[in-house]
């Protein structure tokens, strides 16, 4: 009996690498509408029918953009495009259906609310669009620099520090308490706690979620939780390509002209004048008899014996 009671009160594990959409359907007067067919397309395709409370819930959704459509006989169709789902968050979507026969077209764009009443963690979600468009070095440690409350031990400009991992911490926790997760699966390096076991291809991420408080109970420590969400496939054949280019012309130069002149020119490089070396010689050691040696110049003339 005790074992059964303990099993009942054990908290369910949360899948922090997925999100959800909560749909509530009502008519133009505000009355709830049960029996509405709600279809979801995008990263995943699902359908549901609203219950007696006029609600339909789509759970465990991969992060990305979705389209939501609602249909009920006697009412106009509803369409909501570009509903953005992020990891560990829910998107409340209020759907209003008008009476059929009225000339109306409903086009709604829904976004993740700034304040999510169902969210119990303190986390920052960096979407794929932000990962691609933010002008920064392309690694997860640079993304951590943009998260409020996270302190990183170095500044990576132009990828100059991408050859090694950065140490980071938040809210008083040590760097050894950090955890790394890939689609919710812990991949923290056991030989160097708090560090990642590998480096990553930056373009394989759909989203990055950084948790600094109220972490999932599955995480063994209370440090920063980095969750890397991978891109998911689809039934449509598609591909992508990328080209990166960088040279010195793309780097700014804030060296004042007077300081550059002091250092020795517009380039800022100091000119060092060394005394002229009149003669180079090579010391060649030869052993004769009892350890005698001869030093000779490059011209072959003896310098002296000892």
Could you name the key traits of this structure?
306 residues; Immunoglobulin-like; Ferric Hydroxamate Uptake Protein, Chain A, domain 1; 5-stranded mixed beta sheet; 31% strand
Give the structure's gist in a few sentences.
The chain is mainly beta. It has helices at residues 2-9, 128-133, 140-144, 257-263; strands at residues 19-27, 37-42, 46-49, 55-61, 64-71, 78-85, 90-97, 107-109, 122-127, 150-152, 168-170, 179-182, 185-186, 205-213, 225-230, 281-282, 294-297, 302-305.
How would you characterize this protein structure?
This protein has helices at 2-9, 128-133, 140-144, 257-263; strands at 19-27, 37-42, 46-49, 55-61, 64-71, 78-85, 90-97, 107-109, 122-127, 150-152, 168-170, 179-182, 185-186, 205-213, 225-230, 281-282, 294-297, 302-305. Among the domains are: 15-109, Immunoglobulin-like; 122-230, TonB-dependent receptor, plug domain (Ferric Hydroxamate Uptake Protein, Chain A, domain 1), CATH 2.170.130.10. The strands form five sheets. Strands 3-2-5-6-8 form a five-stranded mixed beta sheet, with no helix packed on it. The chain is mainly beta and 306 residues long. It contains four helices and 18 strands. It is elongated.
Distance between the termini: 99 Å
Helix content: under 10%
Q: What do we call the CATH homologous superfamily of the domain at 122-230? A: TonB-dependent receptor, plug domain
- If classified by CATH, what would the architecture of the domain at 122-230 be? Beta Complex
Largest sheet: 5 strands, mixed
Q: Which topology of the domain at 122-230 does CATH recognise?
A: Ferric Hydroxamate Uptake Protein, Chain A, domain 1
- Overall structural class, as computed from helix and strand content, comes to mainly beta
String of helices and strands? HEEEEEEEEEHHEEEEEEHEEE
- Helix run count: 4
Radius of gyration: 32 Å
The CATH class of the domain at 122-230: Mainly Beta
Q: Give the spatial strand order of the biggest sheet.
A: 3-2-5-6-8
Mean pLDDT score = 75
Q: Which overall shape is indicated by the principal axes computed on the Cα atoms? A: elongated
Unreliable stretches covering 5 or more consecutive residues: 1-15, 268-300
Number of strands: 18
Per DSSP, what share of the residues sits in E-state strands of 2 or more residues? 25-35%
